[in-house]
Amino acid sequence: MPLTKSRRPRLPTSRCHTRCAHRRPRHAAKESQTLARSSTTLGKSRTKIRCYYPMLNNLRLVATARPGDGLVGAIRLLPRWGKMQSSWPKRLWIVRHGESAGNVARDAAHAAGASRIFIEERDVDVPLSERGQEQARALGDWFAANREPERPNIVLTSPYVRARSTAALAAERGGFQSTRCHRVIDERLREREFGVLDRLTSAGIAELFPEQAEARRVMGKFYHRPPGGESWCDVILRLRSMLDTIGLHYGGCNVLIVAHQVVVLCLRYLIENLTEEEILAIDARGDVVNCGVTEYGFDPDAGPDGALKLIAYNVTAPLRDAGAPVTAAPDAPVAAR
């Protein structure tokens, strides 16, 4: 009799993770929204299932199935039998870049009463000023004062030169873990795009685009989107997927984000589940300082599955400890963030 292949049903692979193949049963209940990672038979009486929940803040879940349930039945039982494990980072720092040449140019334009901010480079190519370089080194010294395991081992930066240079100078001072630090440039952390209002002062906007000045006054800066630019909501939309990536890949890590002022504020809005009024009130109290540190720690007792809790916001300790200047000018492209 010829040998025949086993008719064991195949489970299609879902491409939801780069490091392992999750498998979705064809007949699993839609409401469970789970993807089975693996199954292990434990004797004759039970099966251990590891799953990934894409719809529930990237939570992983482990469950033990009862006899006769099979793989599909076990997955249906996961919400009742499983124990969830959070994939938030152990520690998260969010830092605004050091002072840039654009910040200096903006101050000069306002002092002269000019309508435009004069910068030769593209906004993405604007470098750090000398003070910004000093601030970045002070940031690295501040992180280096911690024990090796307490320093960042994942560094995510905006592609803008001023953010990348801040991270590079901090690394040169030994601010990150030396043996296993992973550095990634991510365009979702870029500065807010200002469109037609790029490189205009407040006076310049009122002079050249009075209708946009009025629209911003009526709608508020949280929702106002200049032609060709972004509102705060647009920035928040791309940062939502950024946080999903962090939860999927960097759970339990020490993560440092080096980006821009609006990014710092919008991440606070998302992580702390703030309202428009609450985040604008925080913004109204003062600018995020260059190389100021916002810090979160994972609290397993916060809510049913744990959460990131704010430890400090806009801290200038790295600069004060090193005697570096503290600067807080808004980024250059436009005065009204």
Any overview of this molecule?
The radius of gyration is 24 Å and the shape is globular. The strands form 3 sheets. Strands 9-8-10-7-11-12 form a 6-stranded mixed sheet. The N and C termini lie far apart (77 Å). With 337 residues, it is of the alpha/beta class. Helix 8 packs antiparallel against helix 9.
- Estimate what percentage of residues fall within beta strands: 15-25%
- In the CATH hierarchy, what is the superfamily of the largest domain? Phosphoglycerate mutase-like
Q: Indicate the radius of gyration in whole angstroms.
A: 24 Å
Low-confidence stretches: 8-45, 52-65, 71-84, 333-337
Number of helices: 10
What is the terminal-to-terminal distance?
Answer: 77 Å
Number of strands: 12
